[in-house]
Amino acid sequence: MRHSPSRMNRTAGIAIGPILFIVAILAVLATAIAAGSSTFATSSSGETNRTNAAALIQIGQNLKMGVDRIVALGTPMTSVVINASNTVNNADLFSPTGGGLVPPATTLSSTGSDAWAYGYAVVTNLGTTTNDRVAFLKVTQGVCDQINSQTGGVATAGATRNADLGGNMEANITNTWPTGQAGKMVGCIVNTNGTPAHYFYQILGVQ
């Protein structure tokens, strides 16, 4: 007796449908995770900039308070000594009997090791034409933006915070102060001398 060829079961091949569906779901999940990771990285960077900016603003206020203390005790502002190696005399900012401070860390600078600079500059709309005492620290652009955002300065990069302030931030800066930071005791500027660099600044004393 001849047997007719066996027919394939009608359910054969149906399992491929759920498999393809699961593969598609996994692909969607992988894309979502990748996008989420990118967003998280961006958000984390922005939060770091905000935190560092707030810390620098606080450090700047402490430096100013230390200078104010020395001046209040009778030392002229021009005689206040701001040097990490000077920690003994009443006129020393980093002396227990002077400003009562310790030298600020450099970890918040653009490279993590840029030194603080303490110079003089004629800040527009502050005091007379005599140079004001200023503390500077080189920072990244992201931190610079956040400093100005938190202090009411120029929130984003722009020409109004740029100026050629010379190659030495500890010198007597006589060049024009950035227009966007006129009259502001604290903020962030861009020194366009040579390779442009962003600097947090705090006015320590107005003359």
Summarize the structure.
This protein has helices spanning 16-72, 141-151; strands at 117-121, 132-139, 162-163, 172-173, 186-191, 197-205. It is an alpha/beta fold and 207 residues long. It is elongated.
Helix content, binned percent: 25-40%
What low-confidence regions span 5 or more consecutive residues with pLDDT below 50? none
Separation of termini? Answer: 118 Å
Q: How many strands in all?
A: 6
Mean pLDDT: 86
> What strand order characterises the main sheet?
3-5-6-2-1-4
Q: How many strands, what sense, and barrel or not for the largest sheet? A: 6 strands, mixed
- State the secondary-structure class: alpha/beta
Order of helices and strands: HEEHEEEE
* Anisotropy-based shape: elongated
Q: Report the portion of residues in β strands.
A: 15-25%
Q: Count every helix, treating DSSP H or I runs of 4 or more residues as helices.
A: 2
- Radius of gyration over all CA atoms, rounded: 30 Å
Task: Describe the protein in words.
With 207 residues, the protein is an alpha/beta fold. The protein contains two helices and six strands, in the order αββαββββ. The protein has helices at 16-72, 141-151, and strands spanning 117-121, 132-139, 162-163, 172-173, 186-191, 197-205. Strands 3-5-6-2-1-4 form a six-stranded mixed sheet, covered by helices on one side. α1 (16-72) crosses α2. The longest helix is centred in the first third of the chain and has 57 residues, at 16-72. The N and C termini lie far apart (118 Å).
